[in-house]
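thought: fold this chain, then report.
action: predict
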Amino acid sequence: MKYQKYVILLIIAPLLAFSVHKYYISLCEVEYVEEKKSVQIIISHFIDDLEITLNNEHKKDFFLATNKEAKNIQEIYEDYLHKHLKFTINQKPAQYQFIGKEYDDDLVRFYLEIPNVQKLNSIEIENTCLIKDFEDQQNIIKIKVKKFNKTFYLTKSNVKGLLKFQ
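observation:
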């Protein structure tokens, strides 16, 4: 009987360790496409994390990526992103256009673009997505300008990343 308890404990403990901890991350890929004079952005969130945040913010269920999904979900996504994802280009606030979204397994990807960027001297990104609901949220920002690559890890205590090219 004594050994049986140890065996059960040895089986259950690893399972609990994997199910208790979850990583809260998002990825925002930013690339300046000089030929098109635009900053192109792809931001990816886990659907379940975004759903929790939107449900909490609006006090209703959105059933993301299901056949019961809210009909106005694109407006809700756009509104959320405009509140929580901000860009400053060459020290001036920049508005991005919402191009679209796609679901890919457990991710939702948003496609955004800042057009008419003649020259990129600096870019600042503020990303507070999901931070309100997930204390350990990390928003990873990967920036590519020509052959230059930089990665920022934004958290609740550090929501902005600035990159200068001059």
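thought: worth noting. The chain has three helices and ten strands.
final: tokens above.
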